[in-house]
Specification:
Elements lengths: L13 E6 L8 E8 L5 E2 L5 E5 L2 E3 L5 E6 L4 E6 L2 E5 L3 E8 L7 H18 L4 E10 L10 H15 L9 E7 L5 E8 L4 E3 L24 E4 L6 E7 L2 E2 L2 E2 L5 H20 L8 E10 L5 H7 L13 E6 L1 E2 L6 E9 L11
Parallel strand pairs: 2-4, 10-11, 18-19
Antiparallel strand pairs: 1-6, 2-6, 3-4, 5-19, 7-8, 8-9, 9-12, 10-12, 11-20, 13-14, 14-15, 15-21, 16-17, 18-21
């Protein structure tokens, strides 16, 4: 989502890894997702720990670490809002309690407005990724459903900042348990990057009225094209063809359709840049609605868990509700270009 005209020609590298400990490497930790937690905090070393209030299934990682080659500074903006920034990257995160009396549309609009204002004031250009964890995301009927109310507030906030609908960020919206906090995290870059849509799916921002008063505000993927080794940030992806859910109540078929959608996105991304010949190493978050589906979901997603170059992406399985009540599994991913061609550039 480009919110300023100025382009900066290059940015630092960005890497993502899953880890069972909160240890840092010799590079700079920009921020750290902490699975199974519900409270934001700064660690002893100053790193912002972003809580993901979802149960980890299996013997998976406890942390997802985002690192950059640049020095990082971080702190608290106000109340439960934290930031972490380097020359090229800005992360903002907040959590808020909600209950049945909360006006989720207005609350979401206020949160996103505050975050977008911070992005503008700090002079970053492009919001490339958002993560949204919504307690009881499917609660409510029709337009009163929490996800639809969330989508309404988010869309109004983007529109109020004159955001280009064709340059929205990659996004995830997953449901957490009752009593957990609404958690929203955004990642912004100094330079514009490439949006990738899936030829097998209608763009989410073009969904018809049947999905709510405002269409979901996210791109299917964003390619961080200004990096020497581009990262492909894949939004939460599920068993949707066109705009319709398919294979409802059939986990294996949904997992296979999700796999085809992500492969299609990777292929589409390669056509939009000369800086990548393929994508290899990756990091995946697999969300399942039913705890009992954990082993079958992993087995059914095996095409995503083994790359053509024989590398094995890291993955974690989390228990969470999908934004549509008829969907059982969703996958988000980060892939890194396996080849970068020196001297070439790609424009957003």
């Amino acid at each position: 989502m480009s919110i300023a005209a100025k382009k900066i020609p290059s940015c630092s590298e960005l890497t993502v890894r899953l880890d069972k400990t909160d240890s840092s490497t010799e590079t700079n930790t920009l921020f750290r997702f902490c699975f199974g937690r519900d409270a934001s905090e700064q660690s002893v070393d100053g790193t912002v720990n972003i809580p993901i209030p979802l149960q980890v299934l299996g013997n998976g990682a406890k942390f997802e670490v985002w690192e950059t080659s640049e020095p990082v500074h971080s702190g608290r903006i106000a109340n439960n809002m934290f930031f972490a920034a380097s020359k090229s990257w800005l992360m903002i995160h907040t959590t808020v309690f909600i209950d049945d009396t909360s006006d989720l549309s207005s609350l979401t609009q206020d949160i996103y407005n505050n975050m977008l204002n911070e992005v503008v004031q700090r002079n970053y250009q492009d919001i490339v990724r958002t993560w949204n964890y919504i307690p009881e995301i499917n609660k409510g009927d029709g337009d009163s459903e929490r996800y639809r109310q969330f989508s309404l507030g988010r869309a109004i906030a983007f529109e109020s900042h004159n955001c280009n609908i064709e340059a929205l960020p990659a996004g995830t919206a997953i449901g957490s348990a009752a009593g957990t906090r609404l958690g929203i995290t955004i990642l912004a870059a100094k330079s514009d990057n490439i949006r990738v849509e899936n030829p097998r799916q209608m763009s989410a921002f073009q969904y018809p009225r049947q999905y709510g008063p405002r269409s979901p505000s996210f791109a299917r993927a964003v390619l961080l094209s200004q990096c020497e080794f581009p990262l492909l940030l894949v939004s939460g992806t599920a068993s949707i063809l066109g705009h319709e859910s398919v294979h409802t109540s059939k986990l294996i078929n949904q997992a296979e359709e999700t796999t085809l959608n992500i492969i299609s996105l990777r292929d589409a991304a390669l056509k939009q840049t000369v800086k990548a010949q393929s994508f290899s190493t990756g990091s995946l978050r697999i969300y399942v609605r039913d705890k009992a589906d954990f082993p079958l979901a992993v087995d059914s997603l095996k095409k995503l868990l083994h790359n053509s170059d024989h590398s094995t992406p890291d993955y974690i399985v989390l228990l969470g509700d999908i934004c549509r009540s008829d969907l059982l599994v969703e996958v988000e991913a980060v892939y890194q270009a396996s080849h970068a061609l020196a001297g070439n550039t790609a424009s957003a």
